[in-house]
Every structure is written in structure tokens, then in C-alpha cells.
Amino acid sequence: LALAINRPPDYGSGDNRLGDTASARKRPAMRLLISLCNANQYNSQFSLAVIDTSTEERWLVDCTAFLDFKHDSGITGLCRTPQGLAVAVQSNKPRVVMLDAAFKVMWTATHPALADVHSINHHDGRLFVMSSGRNKVLEIDARTGAVDVFWDYEPSDTPLLHINSLAFLDGRPVACSHQIPAEAGHPSKTGGVWRLDDFEVLIGDLKA
User: What would the mean pLDDT of 75-99 be, rounded to a whole number?
Assistant: First the structure.
């Protein structure tokens, strides 16, 4: 996942630079902040990277201020909000962390229903986080970090839908998952895009 950022904070020394290109092609000048999932336990301190699109220079971001390599294995989602930068932490202690412009922790959100966290989206002052391992979507107040369950699939953890992402279309929540719920009555045996409120399938037969 990549976010365009106008002027990022200090991302560390040149020792973390991944590479550069002497003769960069003409392209819009911006820097992208990219999350790295499955970075593995002992590499998780570098779970964010920056790419300069005009020079093709790349840097790893030192995330030790808010990641613990003993438990965390990557970042599975980024979302810029008026309050700061929200990150979804892949971990045996899954959580969502809100960071300010200097990458200082503003709040940390946890919940018993949060497992195998995937993707994060901001809508109407709230963050929506996919709890892929629990067939749930959690809702977080972007100002305080207070957590509630926004959507819960019945029959709970099975079958595992593996919801990867969520967006709002015409004000209604739309999910993308590895498996379409049986309630949709859709012939697809693989993933798709569907509405959370009535299981209407918008796109079927997607494969992971």
C-alpha cells in the first residue's frame, strides 16, 4: 500500500537507502510511503519505505519507536487522516497505531476481536480495520482510538471469508474478500467484491 506524501519527516540516515538511479526518467515529483507486510519478525523494524518518484531513490523507515520485533511482523495498512497517520500492525499482538508527523505515537487501539489485521480505511471521522482472522470489520474513532465492532459475519469465524479491504460506495460499505459469503447466492467459488449490508456481489470470481 502506498500513500503520496508532500514532505515526509526525517526517515533516517543514508545507511537505510535501498538504491538510486543516476538518470531518473521524467515523472511527477512526489514521495510515496509504502507499507511492507510479512517483513518477518526480525526485519519488522523496517516495515515502511519511502520511494522518491522523480529520482527513484528508496529508503527504509526505522519503525522501532512503535514496532516490537519480538512480536510484530509487518504493517498491513496505512491511512492518512486529519489526526495523523494510522497504521495497521501485523503481529501476535495486532493493533492500530496513530502517528503524528514526527512518527510519535498518539494512541494505540487494540481489541479481542482483532486478528490477522488487514487494510485500514478512513471514512467520516472513523477508521475501519479488517479483522481477517475473525470475519469482522472494526470501527475506530480516529480522534480517541476507541474501538467497536462495525460488522460481524454470522456464523462468526467459519467459513473464513478473509476480508482484505473495505471502501464506501454511495455511502454503503463494500468489502473485498478471498471468499464470497454463501448468503450472496453467487456461483463464484473464489473471492469478490460485495456489499456488507445485503451481500450483493458487485464483482465475482476474483482470485488471490
Answer: 94
